[in-house]
Amino acid sequence: MEHIREEMGLLTQIIKGIAAQFGEKCEVVLHDLTGDYEHTIVAIENAHITGRRMGDCGSNLGLEVLRGSVKDGDRYNYVTQTKDGKILRSTSIYLKNKEDKIIGAICMNLDISDLIMAENALKSITMHSLDQETEEVFVNDVSDLLDYLLQQCQNEIGKPVSHMSKEEKIKAIQFLDKRGAFLIKKAGDKVCQFLDISKFTLYNYLDEVRGERMR
Hints:
This protein is α+β, with helices and mostly antiparallel strands. Helix content is 38%, strand content 18%. The protein is built from eight helices and five strands, in the order αββαβββαααααα. The protein has a five-stranded antiparallel beta sheet. Helix 5 crosses helix 6 and helix 6 packs across helix 8. The longest helix is centred in the C-terminal third of the chain and has 16 residues, at 142-157. The relative contact order is 0.14.
């Protein structure tokens, strides 16, 4: 399979089958990762879980996989939380073509909030520990995802941009690059504005952190 569209019928059947098996508490999403990250969702079941819809973007974890920051992108049975407080047990499986390039993903997000609040005897069913949560952000607009990454960047550095040294700004760019921020269209403009640097300076800093110029 070279493109998600080639097997769209089969893949749609698969996500519908998974959703039917686990019920309305399980969101199942098919992402096409061959185009712009702004619009990766090509099929979704039980969209009320995260509030996303067809045509929306992927999460921060997908960016890290596409950037190559994560060696083995597939993640199984990890726990995350939506912006409205739902606790999810999730699995993300990445689809590759013959050249081993990632072209898509199937993601399952099971809302286990009710189970978390149930009796202690039911906790074993959720198969997780809250102190091992993976931070994954579900948004409708890729600009919101970039805003989230910029906020995480500032938290990582631990000070406002106005007080960052050159070395700290380079560290900030390294943080954003590792998490795939520059895969987002026009991210460079927003990062320059955020760090109060020029495009020329941004490219030079990127050269320092990864040895290649962003085009």
